[in-house]
Amino acid sequence: MSIRSLVVTLAAVVIFAAAPLAQKTTAKPDGKPSAGNAKLEALKREAVADVESRRQFSQQMVDQIFSYGELGFQEFETTRYLTDVLKTNGFAVQEGVAGIPTAFMATWGSGKPVIALGSDIDCIPQASQKPGIALHEPLIEGAPGHGEGHNSGQAVNITAALAVKKIMEREHLPGTLRIWTGTAEELVGSKAYFIRAGLFKDVDIALFTHVDDNLDVSWGPRDGTGLVSVQYSFLGETAHAAQAPWRGRSALDAVELMDIGWQFRREHLRLSQRSHNVITDGGDQPNVVPRTASVWYYFRETDYPHIKELWETGNTMAKAAAMMAGVELQPMKVLGSAWPQHFNKTVAETTWANIQKIGLPPWSDEDQQLAKALQKELKNPRIEGLRTKLRDNLQGPVTENYGGGSDDIGDISWNVPTVTLRFPSNIPNLPGHNWANAISMATPIAHKGVTAGAKVQAMTILDLVMRPELVDQAWKYFREIQTKDTRYEPLIRPQDQPAIWLNKATMEKYRPEMKKYYYDPSRFKTYLDQLGIKYPTVRLNQ
Ligand SMILES: [Zn+2]
Predict the structure, then answer these.
(1) Cα of 203 to ligand 1 centre, how many Å?
(2) What is the pLDDT of residues 182-221, one digit of tens each?
(3) How does DSSP classify residue 335?
(4) CA 226 to ligand 1 center in whole angstroms
(5) Cα three-residue angle 363-364-367, rounded to 5 degrees
(6) What is the pTM of this model?
(7) Using one digit for the tens of pLDDT, what is the confidence trace for 434-448?
(8) What is the predicted pLDDT for the residue at 355?
(9) What's the gap in Å between 132 CA and the centre of ligand 1?
(10) Largest CB tally within 10 Å, which of 5, 263, 371, 377?
């Protein structure tokens, strides 16, 4: 941190501490002041100051997980580290939940409400990137990296939980805090299994966090999609590809025919669908007719019936392709799934009120310089730097959904009142799933964004612990509005199991080299220090 940003930060703390935090909410919605609310507001101020005092703790967690850079289902270092931190801080940890070795559920406290704080932990293939440098510079060429920013959300939740836990212990407040992992989110691989395993059965409220470029929350049906992730494998027969090709049957032919069929059908699909595939097995070498071949599809749509319909169309293409190629279609593998997201109105409103009190972090000139240099590097039409303004209003239901990404938090959101708190640890207008999205993720931008998010999260937890009527209202919305006409039915089939073998080979290939770059907080204040990176590093002409 520069002297200037330190001064700005300290000034903000002083102003914050001096200002009455919540003049508005010391009155009940009916306008009458309440002693209970005054106490709640005092405790929230205390929690915010406590989160502020844990800046270094949060920074170390963000940097540590960034340096592990683990792909979905292979987050072994990350979960070992997180469970150590949680055990040290008095949480009981259930490891390997739902049959997933890198998933856990940590618990502290007792009684109601049960508040489950979750965030994703996995990273992106080929996104290895040095932080704080506004150009593509991999730490290790070809290796995975946090090109989405999932290294930051656990720090938001854990920092907030520790601040609130301290208060709950002293005040003897009933309530249970759970910390859990969005394991393999990039594969939408775990959360439907958490639901199936009953991990959220006794949970009252799920507070999820996800990195973004602003401090934000929303309610109602969201834009974006749900999806099913399916691998189709075909079995043919090998032959000498030149001497006796008529003796062989190519499994790769079936993959290619399926893909061609899908491209033709695409014209006649709804505009809201998204579908894409990669060939995970395309044969061995050209002179051997491929006996095996596999193709992996994501079928995305905006509601459950349309996801099922799209999936069925995919199955038809696979069967037809197998017939054309004269090969056998093997039993398909479901590798992941996600319901479209729907967030809770009461919890979003509660979170939004806290967001407005905290506001965006004070960015330093260095932070803005990095953001603008990266936007320029990516040839963005507008060079805006980091966000300096919250949205004007809380975002409500999306009525026109043109599709987009997915997150299996959707499955949780259809089983328990849920919101996703988005916090400003990344730079606006980046491509997503890309090295560029990793650049801010172990810099002061990420650290400040996490601290802001943790303050909001701590305040919201206290709201839910001390105002049980909020939990009741949240469930009223969940039962009477959200699930009035829509019932959750899992997309995963009874025979499906978590695809925990995915990414194993890739991590085994890169981990030995990556280990050399694991962050060592006992020797270096920050990961930037350890890597010897001047912050920010930008091209000379910028
Ligand atoms: Zn994500």
Answers:
(1) 22
(2) 999 999 999 999 999 999 999 999 999 999 999 999 999 9
(3) E
(4) 14
(5) 80
(6) 0.93
(7) 999 999 999 999 999
(8) 98
(9) 20
(10) 371
Ligand 1 mean position, distance from CA 146 (Å): 10
The rounded percent of the chain whose pLDDT value lies above 90 is 92
Q: At which residue do the structure tokens 């859990």 appear?
A: 180
CA of 305 to the centre of ligand 1 (A): 24
The residue-averaged pLDDT of 294-313 equals 98
Burial status of residue 355 (CB atoms within 10 A of its CB: 0-12, 13-18, 19 or more): buried
Question: Residue 185: what residue type?
Answer: E
Distance 9 CA to ligand 1 centre (A): 28
Is pLDDT of 389 > 50? yes
CA 411 to ligand 1 centroid distance, Å: 15
Distances (CA, A) of 267 to 227, 272, 285, 309: 19, 12, 33, 16
Compute the distance from residue 184 Cα to the ligand 1 centre, in Å.
Answer: 10
**What was the pLDDT predicted at 34?**
74
Question: Cα dist. 148→153, 160, 185, 405, 512 in Å?
Answer: 11, 22, 11, 13, 23
Pair 254, 327: CB distance under 8 Å? yes
Interior/surface letters 89-103, b for 16+ CB within 10 angstroms, e for the rest: bebebeeebbebbbb
User: Which pair of structure tokens corresponds to residue 139?
Assistant: 């730490």
Parallel, antiparallel or unpaired: strands 418-424 and 205-212: parallel
352 three-class SS:
helix
Beta bridge partners of 209: 119, 421
Give residue 5's pLDDT: 43
Which are the contacts of 64, defined by CB distance < 8 A and separation ≥ 6? Answer: 81, 518, 519, 521
Q: Which two tokens stand for residue 7?
A: 């001064």
Q: Is 293 left (phi over 0), alpha (psi -120 to 50) or beta?
A: beta
> In this structure, what token pair is assigned to residue 25?
């909410």
Q: Residue 143 above 70 pLDDT?
A: yes
Distance in angstroms (rounded) separating the CA atoms of residues 387 and 397: 23
At 368, list the tokens.
Answer: 């803005």
d(CA 447, CA 442): 7
Residue 7: pLDDT above 50? no
Distance 148 CA to ligand 1 centre (A): 6
Closest to 294 (Cα-Cα) out of 235, 227, 249: 235
Look-up: residue for tokens 């150590």? Answer: 84
Whether residue 226 contacts residue 300, with contact meaning beta carbons closer than 8 Å, is answered with: yes
186 C-alpha vs ligand 1 centroid, how far in Å? 7
- Say what angle helices 3-18 and 365-377 make with each other, to 10 degrees: 120
What stretches of 30-133 adopt beta strand conformation (E)?
A: 92-95, 104-110, 114-120
Ligand 1 centroid distance, CA of 433 (Å): 9
- What is the whole-number distance in angstroms between the Cα of residue 224 and the centre of ligand 1? 13
Task: For ligand 1, an ion, list residues with CB under 5 A.
Answer: 148
Six-digit token string for 158: 């854990």
